[in-house]
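Support case: user asked for a sample of complex input and structure output to validate their parser. Sending the pair below.
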Amino acid sequence: MQYQAPVDDMMFLIKDVFDLENRLKGIADFSEFDAELYNAILEEAGKFATGILQPINRSGDEEGCQFDDGVVTTPKGFKEAYQAYVEGGWQSLTASAQYGGQGLPKSLHVLVEEMFYSANSSFCLYGSLTAGAYHLLQAHADDVIKDQYLAKLISGEWSGSMCLTEAHAGSDLGILKTKAEPQEDGTYKLSGSKIFITGGEHDMTDNIIHLVLARLPDAPAGPKGISLFLVPKFMVNDDGSLGERNGIRCGSIEHKMGIKASSTCVINMDDATGFIIGGPHQGLRCMFTMMNLERLSIGLQGVGLGEMSYQQAFDYANDRLQGRAEGVEGTAPIIRHGDVQRMLKTMQAYTQAGRALAVWLGAWLDEAFHSEDEAVVSKAQNMAALLTPVAKAFFTDIGYEVCTIGQQVFGGHGYVREWGMEQHVRDARIAQIYEGTNGIQALDLIGRKIVSNKGAFLSELLTDMRDDMQSFSDTSHKVILASQLEELESLSIKIVEHFSADQDKQQYIACDYLHYMALSLYAYLWLKMAETGKDGKKESMQFFFNRLLPRAYGLKKSIENELGL
Amino acid sequence: MQYQAPVDDMMFLIKDVFDLENRLKGIADFSEFDAELYNAILEEAGKFATGILQPINRSGDEEGCQFDDGVVTTPKGFKEAYQAYVEGGWQSLTASAQYGGQGLPKSLHVLVEEMFYSANSSFCLYGSLTAGAYHLLQAHADDVIKDQYLAKLISGEWSGSMCLTEAHAGSDLGILKTKAEPQEDGTYKLSGSKIFITGGEHDMTDNIIHLVLARLPDAPAGPKGISLFLVPKFMVNDDGSLGERNGIRCGSIEHKMGIKASSTCVINMDDATGFIIGGPHQGLRCMFTMMNLERLSIGLQGVGLGEMSYQQAFDYANDRLQGRAEGVEGTAPIIRHGDVQRMLKTMQAYTQAGRALAVWLGAWLDEAFHSEDEAVVSKAQNMAALLTPVAKAFFTDIGYEVCTIGQQVFGGHGYVREWGMEQHVRDARIAQIYEGTNGIQALDLIGRKIVSNKGAFLSELLTDMRDDMQSFSDTSHKVILASQLEELESLSIKIVEHFSADQDKQQYIACDYLHYMALSLYAYLWLKMAETGKDGKKESMQFFFNRLLPRAYGLKKSIENELGL
């Protein structure tokens, strides 16, 4: 089944729901862009997803990456697709014009990312890591490094990798052991071993630029003693040509449940030459610059795979004949059965709300990075900080659930490999784990984004939402939403007031709290979408309010029970 | 990590919670059994699971079944393990003594099944289908067939397969097309093609006895025109020796998400000789005899894999050092983190309650099949009918969730194949689909087990539970449970009163209703377990009431919204 890029629904968000053109108009960097351009880009992205990426998705899964003596070969067609990706300018969409990027807004890019993840999640990861690398360098590297590396990363001629995890240090990066010895020429020699390095080695680019966390000899223990280094696979000469092979090598690749066409590498460094980025012991701080972007990107993997699974399940449910239904002669398509309807509506209601949240968050990222108004930047930074862990964790938890439902719609045909539905589940599963497990996201939300600012970020967000809701005309749902938001606020205040110092209690409720907040936000987004009067949105909104929002009641009760409220 | 058979928790259920020895004492067939025997069998089963089945679980997944020109080869070690399984008497545990079975109670057997599914789900399926076949033949075949086939199926010398699904007929068996032509000698010639036939071909037994649904030439359309046939792979001579190869052959095997060591076959019949079982057009009725047993068995796959995943996650969480915790010098084991605790407790609370429900249901099956008291039989049949879809669907939905959580505890190490955590997820996933999808289970529950008897079965069950609860001493939890059961009852009555004729509404809420009921039953079982005073049970009960039972509130609200209540 061919992927159908949901350009209409995306343009509906851009124009009718968020009116991005007007919202971003005041920002100089975006002043020349309009909705027509956004539409054209989405159309092209859809074609690229359907024509280039989707055709090698299942074969990529079947074939996987191959490892032989340090060399990683990507599955058939990946090199060519990557070439087309670079030539189409897809890597440079949001990158700074100064280094050859197109400077387009993140609120548009999230939609392109969603499409590409729908069509081929493994493929997307290579470019996503590259984007993380150049955003990081742009923010923290000195001009020499920028001049040498940025243009080639932005174009996609070279790719990037993020080398954080070690065998004994995953969620807890503070205990990592990779060493960086300063050299007389100002460079460093790195030694150590990293695992789970996505795109750490492959055959699609001439060079790979690794961003590596390591410790200097004098580093204090824990997270404050971590520094960041750029370690190229091949050294780069002053004229930009490639020099000698650096001492950073792929030792093996992992055999995984899914995303099999994405290479997941053990990366060994043996006196590899590196360049410090952002100064000594500033590694984690620098890393966090790009972490928000990467986390949102991984969230979109959840939305994208959910959309893909939904499209296939919807088609299958229309084609597959089983059982009787009123008004149908003979055997009915299974979409006529209530339980199948429930499954499809659940998939759709979650996926479309996720897409909306992604654009909403994307717009705040655009303001945070590009607005010249300090007040706008500051608020947007807060909103992006608050919403990023919600997006990453909820999109991916729900993405996995949605893909599982899509597989269920296919019955036994969903369990065999042939139809590809089980691949979506396997591919979606990783998104709950990498780029910070969803448990870590939940702790980030409750600890850093709620408790540490005493709920100020949430309060800012709620003020915005309530202002917006004033114009809503659907009184009955508005009342439900208003009370939902009040309960969210009041529960959050109680957490801040009584459990700010109780890390244990925070941990115990973190995941439930994140889901509770996300469902509340989805309710707002659904009502906002329904208010436009667009066909079908009111029904989906009602379905969400009736059938999915109630999950929030259970979560609230669970949190209250844990906290003794 | 080696599987640890949870014999203690199992004996706790047998003795302290359900007092099976006394409950079954009055049944002649079980009069010679006692708890000591049950304990000895569980100990042996545990050794078999750990020593024989678990060691070939991951290799079986890696290697899978191989197909070559009609011949299916099981993975290395499976033939030998099957031989040990037969020699150990594991196939004949609950079968009738008349044909060489050991006649042990189902309430014990469910625990053995759980262990075997924990250790190697693929392996278990072969024997589970054989058991389904001999229970069916025992109930519906004539003496000639019984004498010829039962002893060899019960011993496991031959295996069984259930041939129901066709490419266009899955949940809707009424439209199946396989034809059976009556012959002058009283046999039939079958032609047609079946798919998704578990154990339909393999190399572990000399003969495979297929039970095939097909249509006679004069059959009425729909489910009432289906007949059941015994179709052996090799014809059986009068002296019991094997005769000529029958025209039933494996055309290919499926490539699946999981249970890769279980052969899932396309079975083609070309004038295959078959023997009718149970008379013309009685096929579905006969099939349903064994369906309850098969469904419970598949439910146990969910419980078993959940237990396995829990054991590994628990061990890993004790070993894996990440982050700080109060009172721990240096890096703490992740089990000290609240979010990990929540995950482990969720896994445990669900799995142990599932095990309890399995024994509870097993005891009713024992009474239904073996009691000589008609009133006992009738009530037990009702309870088994009511609880079977709940067990099948909830055990497996939760089994998948629990395995997913277990994988999450491992972080990235859970996503790579090495540790085996992702195999549990893939193996568990099928259990929600086969033996009647969980959607079908939910429709069975609400349609046939609630609405069609106007809630009488549920009312009988609730009366039992309330009687039992009178002796409970934990007043505060008893109040919560009592109100939960009242709400379940009142919602069920409303469904019966207002939606008996509304199939569509029933479908829309069926899955939510099943989960809602299951959570209510788990609450009862947890309080019942806690009442024994056994170590740790009270804490788990509290966790269940605080953190998991609240899901039921959300489900209730969702159902009420859908029904406009």
